[in-house]
Amino acid sequence: MREQGKERKTLTDAEIGAVAHLYRGEVYRSTIWRTRLDTTTNWAVVTLGVALSITFSSPDASPLPLILVGILIIFFLLLEARRYRYFNVFRARARWLEKHFYAPLLDDGDLHMEENWQKVLAEDYMQPTYHVGYVTSVGRRIRRNYLWILLIQSLAYTGKLVVHPTPVTSLQQVLGRADVGPLAGEVVIGIGLLYVLSWSGIALWSEWSNTARAKVRGSKTSMG
Predict the structure, then answer these.
(1) pTM, whole model, 2 decimals?
(2) Residue 52 is part of which domain span?
């Protein structure tokens, strides 16, 4: 088979062995970075749990810890998004080898090695780059894990204002409970709404971005 007048390189037995070791290395690196993703998620869950315990520990406890923990959760999210970009590089390389090298070898003849799979992989090693943007990475982590963490935080804060220590009887009472020092309750709740809309918007945009990237990957000339 040919592509633009050039034959695809046929690998020798030694080169196939080297590719096998290369694949093992990429799987190992993706596994290590996947573990790091779990670590930051665990940090976010633990800090949220601490904030929930403090906030609901007594009727007089302030809802402020649930606001402050949001800063930590966002920090962990941004850190995890950065780690995800590294993980995605190694995962994509391993998946590329599985799809374009191992799958055709294991098939009974219906699949064929893609003409340009070696070139795409070689270029990725020669000029390594992230396969996804930072904002896209943030959106993916929100949709996979942090959506539920942020949702629990928001619902817990709302519940603290509305039903703890006693159910509210008026909107003014809710706004009064939301006061934080010199900041009026209206301002604090407005910031909270912006907070929720921001991560929700990023998650939705990331889904749209993934759909667009899937169309590009259909050309069999891109990875990630």
Answers:
(1) 0.84
(2) 2-217
